[in-house]
Amino acid sequence: ARPLIDCAKPLQSLIQRIGLSIAVPEQAPDPTTLTLLVGDLPYALGYQDGQTLPPPLALTPLPERVNALHAVLAAAGPPPYVGLTWRAGTPGFNQLNKSILLTTLQPLLTTTCTWVNLQRNPLPHELAELGRYTGQHLADLSHTNADLEDMLALLSLLDDYIGVSNTNMHLRAALGLPAQVLVPYPPEWRWRLTGARSPWFPTFNVLRQSLNGDWNPAITACSKTLAQRLHRPAP
Question: Is the pTM of this model over 0.85?
């Protein structure tokens, strides 16, 4: 079989670099072609019990992009570097379980490091609020969302990444690096209903909002893990 993938344009460079061919939308499919949704592939290939899932697809950043982003980070502030995203999802669809208020994150943002804003299309008042919480150690690199090769390179340089479920979380998983994902209640299927791990993201800490809407236990756990990763005293 010769697999073809029909994907959004921002993903095409990454997909082609791992050896998959991009489908041509205008081209009439061969009568023998079988079309499947990507989400159905594990089931179609026999991964049906949730325990034997293959690891995340491995992606390697382009060295020239890594070098360029390393220089940008160095100019923005001293290490360690921690990425942050607080909102995701398509407007009007699924945003309920893909967002968290910056005020909720405020206790976490007092950690001494260079915070790297990875939020797509941040609003001016959000940047101002984030600046107040983090002080002068803030790098706004939200523009890297426009090119996923840049984002992959940037994510490879971060000491930790904290945020809601989004495209960048998938890229971080593909790098095999740890992250802390904040999961509102009710959770998306990929984060399951309970537990601190997801089989699709084995290197991630899953930090959950409680049934009553309380984020405090999740933020406390996130702070402790961040302190360990940055070799700082726990709050």
Answer: yes
